[in-house]
Amino acid sequence: MEKVGFHYWLDSDHYSEKDLNLWLPRLKSLGASWVVLPAPTCRAIPEHFITTLKREKITPVLHFQLNSEKLPAVEEMMLLFETYQKWGVKYTILFDRPNMQENWGSESWAQSDLTERFLDGFLPLAEAAVMVGLVPVFPPLEPGGDYWDTIFLRGSLDGIKRRASAPLLERLILSAYAPLNENPLSWGGGGPESWPEAQPYSTPESSEDQRGFRIAEWYLILSEAILEKKLPLLLLGVSGPAAEGQDLNQLLLDGAKLISRQEVEGLDPLPEQVIGGAFLVLAAEESCCAGKHSWYQEDGTPKPIVNHFLNAEAKTVEKSPEEFRFSHYLLLPTFEWGIADWHLNVTRGFIKRHQPTIGFSLNEAVQADQVTVLGGEEHFSEDDLSLLRNQGCMVRRIDGDGTKIASLLAAI
Fold this sequence. Notes:
The chain has helices spanning 17-29, 47-55, 74-86, 106-110, 114-131, 149-163, 166-171, 215-227, 248-259, 304-314, 341-346, 348-354, 362-365, 382-390, 402-410; strands at 4-7, 34-38, 59-64, 91-94, 135-137, 174-177, 233-238, 274-279, 326-331, 357-359, 368-374, 394-398. The chain is α/β, with parallel strands linked by helices. β11 (368-374), α14 and β12 form a beta-alpha-beta unit.
């Protein structure tokens, strides 16, 4: 789905060629538009990892989870920023949950003007990022948090308005963690104007607050009040748990639809300033706190949410059953000299698993519910794929050499 992304592993230990070969096909099968990558300050993520994501039209978002007490030198970060910008990176998130005491020493936390002292570290790095052509992202705050997030954001935006350069004010975007917290997707809709009784550190039982999927509406109202414009915003950490009696898989699916600007019955659309949303998390060790939220097991085995997501995606544009002649069509390219045997060989396992109708005709493929297209634009143009989608087909393009095609097909 458009605008939908994922947090990659939450550590920085999964950037090898082997990791890329395992997880790239899964990101592509989910239709990921972007992926949040934990970025260390002591070294760069391998160039091949970044450039491959870019080539596959998956936008990498680098998250530097800096500690306010142990900041790297601006000159060192500038070198990293310049390197990443040359590789095609655009977005960089600086810091993580600075409204939590654990990100500060006990002595620093107890001092006054916390937001101003946070900006002492954030602004020089954000200015450096802008200087080399990156887009700095204001860090996600813990919803609620030790220092109430909306108060922290208000103080930070006020300081940014006073202290930031014009280029930084022009390029800055916001981010926000949006876990469900056992609340429905409608929780907090309308922001503080709809829930005036909600106060920092105190939400009456009859009220709702920012701690849920609609957190963007609260942050954007603050942005407009202080900076006189609603900044673009990235939703992060979209995850459960669901309230008792609710289907978490369906809630996450509906959340993905809202992020991708699709209609969901009974729910208002997200603000247009929300440019994407990342689900927590693509994969994690089961013993890790994020393991219960992962979409795949450590070895790449999909969890139930993946099949639920893919099956629903295939039915996004519905047709009546009589309109479908085929449930799944494998569209293969032809050449002047005939049909390539290696295309048939590399798809053998896929054909055994899914038993699709196999053919070479675009006119036949438009009669299918799902179409898996084998080959690049030299065989089937984007206009061809648009034709299929306009006819209600769920389309996946598979391209590359034999090894890559086999890997991508194995993830479906």
